[in-house]
Amino acid sequence: MNDNQVVLGIDIGTTAVKVAAFGTDGRARAVHSEAYPITRPRPGWAEQDPEDWWRGCITAISAVLAEVPDVVVRGAGIVSQVNTHLLVKQDLTPLTPAVIWQDQRCADVARELDARFTPEDKLRIWGGPVALDASFVGARAAWFAEHEPDKWARARWILSPKDFIGARLTGRVATDKLSGVRIAGAQGYLPEAVALVDGLGERLPELLEPETPLGPAKQLNGAPVVVGTMDAFGAVFGTRTTEPGRGMISCGTSLVVAGASRHRATQQGIVTFPPRGDLYVHAGPTQAAGEAVRWWAQASGQTVPEVFDSAADGAAGIVFTPYLQGERAPLWDADVRGSFLGLTSSATRADLSRAVLTGVAFSARHVLEHVEQACGFRLPSLTFSGGGARSDLWTQLHADVLGRPVERLRVHDSAALGAALLGAVGVGLQPDVETAAAATVAVERVFEPQTDLTRLYEAYRASYEGLAKVHELLR
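Above: the chain sequence. Below: its structure as tokens.
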């Protein structure tokens, strides 16, 4: 690969599609984003128009290629928001809006499905405790079959965003094993999970490794596109969490904490992915990171940049729990609700803004505790990337809350970089994604802990059990 060759990373995110062209050194040569909305037609629902993804993707690809007209595009990889699903016809025409990962309409269905499995069943099938929550593809399929039976009957595929875009670009419908962690294993789809819903198995796409080329895309002048993976695992690759002892926090609309080890564990509250060689990645996603900031900006009459500006002037002392639409890891509780705790008459909007940012960091520490139990050791430091890494304050708050160094990476868009690394492997420019990550991921700045926030974190943790009756009454 030489200086005039690039690989594209395509990230179909929750709020925007981002396309970036990366050169040989892992530096972004051009980046373009196209935003799209989330609609919330009913309480607890969250949907997107999949055609918005497609239009945004094509626009962003064109914009990036226009910025670097003299380069040769060798290939592309795709990542996307995970646990977002839509039904499509054989010709890839959407039959439904996309039900995104924030959507809680299937919570009751998921509880019923989850109750069918004993802890011994889960150990045998999944290798440990796993939560079949409202975003589980089986719960979504069961909901479609019950509430949209005509569309379910007409559907050829149930797809994630990246698989929909990959199929539109290349004509081949496939997905990867990593994205289907609760329905797929190392050897393919899990029969017990697929059998939960009649007709689910025949609507699931072909399973391939994430580096596998799908085929050429005319929008890329015939360059091939690889299958790709979920955005969280794209970030694993794009942060070099591909070696034992490394850990990451990806802070975007939601937050993902992951650690890598040679140790296979059964740890409640997080996911252990199928191994790549002898390496296990243990990870957990929360429900709201940037989404909590967006909510607070709207609720408080500020813009998002104003929230960060005001937080810089805020004082510590108020606890915010970012459970605005329930919580995923490590609680997996669709009914828990967010709160501000410790308010006094002297509290200011700036104090609350700081509490929102700190509360998200508390959620990262909560997940990290479970990740480290799965790893079997304490991670000495963590990389920090995603949109949240653009804020010095938020990065510093994570270092303070976690009590260890946080390494902000040179490429904040780690999921897009991970997608591009998969593309580079797929077209033969790199031997494997681990080698590619080692050659391209670089640290921009290290943030050391400055303030001990342990007491506030202990209050954050105590609030979940302490408010259990309140959350029950507010259902």
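The first strand starts at residue 5 and ends at 12.
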